[in-house]
From TrEMBL:
HTH lysR-type domain location: 1-59
Entry-linked InterPro entries: LysR-type_TF_proteobact-type, LysR_HTH_N, LysR_subst-bd, WH-like_DNA-bd_sf, WH_DNA-bd_sf
Alphabetically ordered keywords of this record: DNA-binding, Transcription, Transcription regulation
Encoding gene (name): dmlR_18
Organism: Paraburkholderia metrosideri
Protein known as: HTH-type transcriptional regulator DmlR
Family stated for the protein in its record: Belongs to the LysR transcriptional regulatory family.
Source organism superkingdom: Bacteria
Pfam families: HTH_1 (PF00126), LysR_substrate (PF03466)
């Protein structure tokens, strides 16, 4: 028989002084109650109760055992109540993981407002530009700009959309001219992540519904987009950065959005958590808080258009290739090359978690 249940039965028998009374209180038969007590005595190798036809009494061993067992059962009940409370009331440490730049520029005010709203929860934030296994690494919530995760048991939910924006400072544009077409990027120093050094193909959706593919050569590389933002603010070139990183710079005029008639692939930001089953209150409330925050602060459907007078830029006709077939899109482009394509279905872009 179940030892824990036998202990509960023994305490009830001792408190009521009756097998029949314990059977009634626990909704069990008298035979089952008797068997539980007998199993305990067999396990312990000692008698716990003195039985007569009129009454029951505890032996010395029974009194000692009852005192200790009562404490054990009380502690167990307290633990169960604590676990239930933690699942229904936001409390405890909440382990969060997010990409570095997104965390530094976007997550801090959300965590601050959540902590003020739920003071019994202690947020513990980890910023990491790598693939994350939420289950193995013990995270409660992950904010990700990627679908590449090593755990198959996670649940994901779209949080917001980031827009990649071509930008530069007003001073840089005044000195070097303003790009008005994707091809014009070939005539400007481009700022990009080190992994893209040598030129990564950029796919722009045109106003007419087609695509232009450009592979500009990079002048300056960095392994962090915040560093690229700093380079851009120093007027060192043209950068393509996510909207959540440069939103304040665009609003203040420190950076100017370029090529606003063209669209780059979006960056889907998702929230991930290990399972929907028995979701702790601290996780559930944080997810709801995140969604509420980003619903209130979502970016517009597309980046605002800002008109900047452009200087004339030499026409890079030697680097432009026009092909009428979709198959041409599969041909590799050398650094500094451009291909303009007719309208074709756009493939879904999966963003890196390091954005």
């Amino acid at each position: 028989m179940n030892q824990l249940q036998s202990m509960r039965v023994f305490v009830k028998v001792a408190d009521l002084g009756s097998f029949v009374g314990a059977a009634t209180a626990l909704d069990l038969s008298t035979a089952v109650i008797t068997r539980h007590v007998a199993d305990l005595e067999t396990r312990l190798g000692t008698r716990l109760l003195n039985r007569t036809t009129r009454r029951l009494s505890l032996t010395e061993a029974g009194r000692t055992y009852l005192e200790r067992v009562r404490h054990i059962l009380d502690d167990l009940e307290g633990v169960e109540q604590m676990v239930v409370a933690r699942n229904h009331e936001p409390v405890g440490t909440l382990r969060i993981v997010a990409p570095v730049v997104f965390g530094l520029h976007t997550l801090a005010p959300v965590v601050q407002s959540y902590a003020a709203r739920y003071p019994d929860v202690v947020p513990d934030v980890t910023l990491a530009d790598r693939q994350v296994d939420l289950v193995e690494e013990g995270f409660d919530v992950g904010i990700l700009a990627t679908r590449h995760m090593r755990s198959g048991s996670i649940v994901t939910r779209r949080l917001t959309t980031g827009y990649m924006t071509v930008c530069a400072t007003p001073a840089y544009l005044a000195q070097h001219g303003t790009p008005t077409r994707p091809e014009d990027l070939l005539n400007h120093p481009c700022l990009a992540r080190s992994s893209e050094h040598g030129g990564e193909e950029k796919v722009f959706a045109t106003p007419e519904g087609g695509e232009v593919r450009v592979r500009p050569g990079n002048a300056i590389g960095a392994n962090n987009t915040e560093m690229l933002r700093q380079f851009a603010l120093l007027g060192m070139g043209v950068a393509i950065l996510p909207s959540y990183l440069i939103g304040r710079d665009l609003a203040s005029g420190r950076l100017v959005p370029l090529l606003t008639d063209y669209r780059l692939p979006q960056v889907e930001i998702t929230i991930a958590y290990p399972s929907r089953l028995h979701l702790p209150a601290k996780v559930r409330t944080f997810i709801d808080h995140l969604v509420e925050h980003f619903q209130q602060t979502s970016p517009p459907a597309r980046a605002p258009r800002v008109i900047v007078p452009a200087r004339s830029v030499p026409e890079p006709m030697a680097n432009v290739e026009v092909r009428p077939t979709v198959a041409a899109a599969a041909v590799a482009l050398p650094a500094g090359a451009v291909r303009r394509l007719p309208k074709v279905p756009r493939a879904r872009i999966v963003a890196s978690s390091s954005v």
